[in-house]
Amino acid sequence: MIRKPAVDALKSSKRFDPPSHIEHLASMAKEIVSLGNQTGEGWFLTGEMLELIHSGAGNIVCTQPFACLPNHVVGRGISKRLKEMYQYGDVNFLEVLLQSSSITDFLTRFEYLKYIANNDQKLLDEVSALKASLETEKASLDSMKTSLVVKRQNQEAKSKELATASAQKQSLVDQINAEQDALYDILEDLEAESKALNSEIKRLQAEQAAKNGANTKAPGAYLWPCPSSHTITSNYGYRVHPVTGAKKLHSGMDIGASYGAAVVAAASGTVIMSKYYGGYGNCIIIDHGGGVSTLYGHMSSLVAKTGQKVSAGETIGKVGSTGVSTGNHLHFEVRINGSTVNPANYV
User: Fold this and answer.
1) Cα 108 vs. chain centroid, distance in angstroms?
2) What is the pTM of this model?
3) CA geometry: angle at 59 spanning 53 and 60, to 5°?
């Protein structure tokens, strides 16, 4: 046993206050060296021990079980103390050293405390590195999450755009179908009126022949009836309804033109009709002789009057959209003995 009054005095305290006993520890260290020389154990405190004593004189927290230490470090006596440290947590540095039973025990405790300090520092470094790694990984995951959120928002926006475009497309299709149905209704009405007009033209031509004498000579050439525009928006011929499959005859040629544009006589002749006629709207019919007549429909105004003789190229009316019409245009027909033929073969 080490015989030292200073050590015995310190050991009698239940809880040491390291800051107030540092000087006592230094004095005790000198006495330990002296006693060691006297007893022949011949050992001394190194600078490393003194530095550890001064720097670690406060309380330490044991974070590792004693089983983590190498076997040659943990002795039978200190094992019990380490268990107590592990069980009770907060341990005073000086208390551990001052409970040494011999110089060898003191050195063993000192080495143990140094090992604990180094091991705790190592664990602290590892925990710090792990924390930094986790923070980096968390930042990366947060960035990925943000990117995914943005992508999801973009995808939702595109889905909404596609849904809107699809709805607009369907609306346009419905509109086209409605317009097409309306167009076939118009063609049906015009076809019925065109058939009714056959007999009316024959009657008017017969009256004209009786009044002015028979004229069987047809014109040799025809002029384009709308000088300001040569745009054909609808040709002569049959139209097949896409749903019902019914055929409807478009009895003339539609020429798109500006409102009020001049309409001229395709050939010289006598006006046998100049009035508003059902689906044809403002309509003029000219008898050219030889059973040939021309019809001009949907005009905004009528210039030539019934019974008037007109020359080829003379203005007889103005372009409009009267009657059953979807826009400003001239509906032009050529008829032989009251029946319609393709105007493209004449103008």
Assistant:
1) 71
2) 0.50
3) 90
| Tokens found for residue 38 | 């006297």
Task: Tell me how far apart the alpha carbons of residues 218 and 220 are, in angstroms, rounded to a whole number.
Answer: 6
Beta partners for 254?
A: 234, 331
| pLDDT, tens only, 197-206 | 888 898 888 8
Torsion, Cα of 43, 45, 47, 48 (10° steps):
100
Instruction: Check: CB of residue 280 under 8 Å from CB of residue 249.
Output: no
CA pseudo-torsion sign 262, 266, 267, 272: negative
Compute φ and ψ for 44, nearest 5 degrees. -145, 160
With residue 30 as reference, give the H or E element that holds it: helix 18-39
pLDDT digits (tens, 9 = 90+) for 143-193: 999 999 999 999 999 999 999 999 999 999 888 888 777 777 776 777 778
Q: Do 116 and 86 contact (CB within 8 A), yes or no?
A: no
**The two structure tokens encoding residue 316:** 């007889």
Q: Which residues of the chain have pLDDT under 50?
A: 1-26, 32-33, 35-48, 50, 52-82, 84-85
pLDDT of residue 238: 86
C-alpha to C-alpha distances, 309 to 254, 267, 285, 330, nearest whole angstrom: 25, 11, 12, 21
Q: Which residues contact 143 (CB under 8 A, 6 or more apart)?
A: none
Q: Where are the alpha helices (DSSP H) in 213-310?
A: none
SS3 assignment, position 60: strand
